[in-house]
Amino acid sequence: MTPSFKTPSDDKSVLEEGTDISPRFDAMGLITAVVADSRDNEILMLAHMNDEALRLTIDTGIAHYWSRSRSALWKKGETSGNLQMVDEIRFDCDQDAVLLKVRVSGSDATCHTGRRSCFYRKVVKTDGETRLETDSAPLFDPKSVYTDH
Amino acid sequence: MTPSFKTPSDDKSVLEEGTDISPRFDAMGLITAVVADSRDNEILMLAHMNDEALRLTIDTGIAHYWSRSRSALWKKGETSGNLQMVDEIRFDCDQDAVLLKVRVSGSDATCHTGRRSCFYRKVVKTDGETRLETDSAPLFDPKSVYTDH
Lengths: 149, 149
Hints:
The structure is a homodimer.
Chain A: H1 12-17, E1 31-37, E2 43-49, H2 51-60, E3 64-67, E4 72-75, E5 84-91, E6 97-104, E7 121-126, E8 129-134, H3 142-145
Parallel strand pairs in A: 1-6
Antiparallel strand pairs in A: 1-2, 3-4, 5-6, 7-8
């Protein structure tokens, strides 16, 4: 089991250049996690982790998060089968965010809408209007997977 | 000037599948921004945007954020010269996060420590110990650039 994390140092150089894992959890006890595909760096989703989710992710090599909507520990993919196997975990300079490089099992989809990435809409400007345009299709039918959504 | 954004719909399908930009700003008036390099998808940093920063980014094509530490609008790179030219802006499913694909000018460094990415440390397990290991070097000397840090 991963030992408890260190308390973040007040010394900025220790926090930014040190080897200790000392996550700066926010007032809700969370840090932000960016999730990218190991194969091509495609950014798949953004989520949050509490202390337990971060430790479980490090220990098991399978991504765990904290679901803010359900206020519960969340083993991503437990329902859909699209588990995230973690190849690498990186911390940012001030240790309030992590980057996970993962391989997604199941249907290779991360978004609950069935798409590979949650970032499936881009900002476009047409005829003086700024709007969103979807440029990827679902890989699975969410209705057939999630019965409680 | 980009018109004001729409109020997020209570209808999940409109929020997730619609073409309206309706950011779900949090209690602090912020959404999260993930920033990746257009060239190779390298994840460079994580930051936050308020309404004004998001509009300025869409309008000017140069990344603007809200600095939570300084409580001020932040045109990234204004001091260091490492401006971020925005090639693409993507919204996630529930519109509380954006992904920016950018080209970084100046010394091609995004982190205030002088490194290309803020995620310059990875989690390693050695001799039963879990710690951080730095695997990239600064591209510029922060001391020569930031006089107020």
